[in-house]
Design a protein that fits this description.
alpha+beta; 3 domains; four-stranded antiparallel β-sheet; Immunoglobulin-like; 20% helix
């Protein structure tokens, strides 16, 4: 299915028949032949499929009242897309949050607290001052600095790309899933997540996303950026 803004098609996204519509850094509308998604069947990809299936089964086991509470909460959360803001269902938000928690647990990156009740606070959870810098200890790489100014504990997963020439400024993925790191950030604290053992001078792109850990699982916004690896002695 494709969605189009205006009769003149100033913006169109999605697929119709054998064609896919998207945008790039040079054109507002790009049309190409539709291709099947690549399924390399890596271990981490298998984990992702497994945790989404498990989250779906857990959603089915919730009471009608809890599912209704999730739908009410979802109506307060809006994502930004090329065609404007949009909301997803309570099922979609629950599965996204639960799958992130279970993926982190399945990878052995952290031990999350799994709660199924719906949030009673509107909107997404909040992280602030998410940025990157040089490492916090000796080595070659970079660090991601995250502040949690809320009163909630937030489980955060950080990912990085392979290294690129420093002239590259844009990147959409994929990220190196085997290099992902996770940490639980208590309320009103800050952390530095180090990515060492990299190539000095290369540009690395990073992505951060989180979910409330000590209560009903509210997702945070997703943060992205890049940093040149440097050597700290």
């Amino acid at each position: 299915m494709a969605r189009m803004l205006s009769q003149v098609a100033t913006i169109i996204r999605g697929s119709v028949g054998g064609l896919t519509y998207l945008a790039d850094q040079y054109h507002q509308i790009v049309m190409r032949a539709r291709t099947s998604p690549v399924q390399p069947n890596t271990t981490n990809q298998a984990i992702i499929r497994s945790v989404f299936s498990e989250a779906s089964e857990i959603w089915k086991s919730l009471t009608d009242e809890v599912r209704a509470d999730w739908n009410s909460y979802a109506a307060t959360c809006f994502f930004q897309g090329p065609l404007g803001p949009y909301a997803v269902s309570g099922r979609g938000l629950f599965m996204g949050a639960r799958a992130l928690q279970q993926y982190i647990a399945a990878r052995g990156l952290e031990t999350p607290t799994l709660v199924t009740t719906a949030p009673t606070t509107t909107g997404f959870a909040t992280l602030s001052s998410v940025n990157s810098s040089e490492l916090g200890a000796a080595g070659t790489g970079f660090a991601i600095n995250i502040s949690n100014t809320s009163g909630e504990d937030i489980l955060v997963m950080a990912e990085r790309s392979l290294g690129f020439h420093p002239s590259r400024l844009r990147y959409k993925g994929p990220y190196e899933s085997s290099k992902s790191l996770a940490v639980i950030i208590p309320g009103s604290t800050s952390v530095h997540i180090d990515f060492p053992h990299l190539e000095d001078g290369n540009r690395y792109f990073w992505r951060v996303k989180g979910v409330v850990d000590d209560g009903p699982p509210r997702l945070t916004a997703q943060f992205q950026g890049s940093q040149l690896a440097s050597t700290v002695v």
